[in-house]
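Hi, here's the filled form for the chain we discussed.

Project: internal
Contact: R.S.
Residues: 242
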Amino acid sequence: MDYLDTAIVLTLVIITVAEFSALMTDKLISTTGSRTRGFDEWCQCLVEEVRLSLREDVEFNVAQSASVLEKLNMLMASERDKAQPYLTRSVLLNNILTTVSKVSTPKMADKLAQVLPDRIAKCDHSATSRFRLRTGVKVACVATIVALVLNISSLSLINELENTDVEDMTRLQSQIESLNTRLEAEDDPTNAGAIMIELRSRLNQRSDLESKTLSVGPTAQGINRMSVEWVFGCVLTGLLAG
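And the returned structure, exactly as it came back:
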């Protein structure tokens, strides 16, 4: 098998492990409440950015800021009680600006509407980056465990794909063609029978070689699970999937 075929097969294996591990990680995240914790971190960042914006961008007094932050905290608290917290940016901005318009002038509300989206975007980026990093680490850990349990070693897979016995296949094909030529030219039934027996043997060898299965996966035999190469190959599979 050439390098391109090896790369394709290895990529498909890695993608399959990654998808399976991602599904398991998603269930794990839902069970442990990681999304809720990520939502809480985003809320804390957002409240701080809104507080700074009210103080620095529009110079609200303490009472005005407290009123806006109180409404914001109420909105976030109601969202936090849901099974999967989700709060759109438009809903968030409308809530804040509606409250601001009640405690300040339209000019100050318009000014806040200009600067607040950038502050919210900064919180979105920060929270999303942290959540993706933690999720990626979890997927890599789950994928490594899956690879160890199911014996999916990238190194073993590459070795098996590259070791397709091309030379043996070429040699057998040459022998089969030679035997076919001899059989067609042979007039003696005794010699023809011997040639046919030998030809059948070579055909069986070629069939066995063509149907050779990879010695990787949960059903593979003779796997040394204590070898450094095998462990490294499984860990590599997990890291690539993660």
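Let me know if anything looks off before we file it.
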